[in-house]
Design goal:
CATH topology of the largest domain: Rna Polymerase Sigma Factor, Chain: A
Shape: globular
CATH class of the largest domain: Mainly Alpha
Number of strands: 0
Number of domains: 2
Oligomer: single chain
CATH architecture of the largest domain: Orthogonal Bundle
């Protein structure tokens, strides 16, 4: 019995680890506030784990299934926040959610391309761009910690982003 639970736990973690970036990106399309996203994402993980014993699909099906859970969790959150004036209506949320689920393969493809392009950067540039997207400090704080002026650091990031953009736009056959 314990082996079955461990196997189920391992399979869940495996599916979750490979699907998490897509689920998180999907949730970001539905909820703009970072703190709300984090709270909802935790609820998605808990709900998915609680219902995982009834799931019998593949990795791709898990990702879609978890995105549906994320959608319902986002809608539940939205209902709780309904008193705010800046809340999107249900029809628009549903439209965005439906498009997000259908666009999973494009997102996976884009992530693969981005990983390849990141690997083409020098190690120092790759580290800089990764640190710039970490949420624990601002760009200004990061520049200061590297003894650079914020302006020169912004310019360096701009050059790295342009390089990544150019890489993403070139040779599409290479990434399929």
């Amino acid at each position: 019995m314990e082996d079955k639970t461990n196997d189920e736990h391992s399979l869940f973690l495996s599916y979750l680890a490979s699907s998490e970036p897509i689920i998180r990106a999907y949730l970001r399309s539905l909820v703009q506030d970072y703190h709300d996203q984090s709270e909802i994402m935790q609820n998605v993980f808990i709900t998915a784990w609680n219902k995982f014993s009834s799931f019998s699909g593949s990795q791709d099906e898990f990702c879609k299934w978890a995105c549906v859970i994320a959608r319902y969790q986002a809608m539940k959150h939205r209902q709780n926040q309904a008193r705010d004036r800046l809340v999107l209506n249900d029809k628009l949320i549903t439209l965005i959610a439906d498009e997000g689920i259908e666009d999973q393969s494009t997102t996976k493809h884009w992530h693969k391309k981005l990983d390849i392009c990141l690997q083409k950067l020098s190690p120092s540039n790759r580290t800089l761009i990764q640190k710039a997207y970490e949420l624990d400090q601002s760009i200004k704080e990061l520049a200061n910690s590297l003894n650079k002026s914020p302006n020169s650091f912004y310019q360096k990031l701009l050059r790295i982003r342009k390089s990544l953009s150019k890489c993403m736009d070139t040779d599409p056959a290479l990434y399929s």
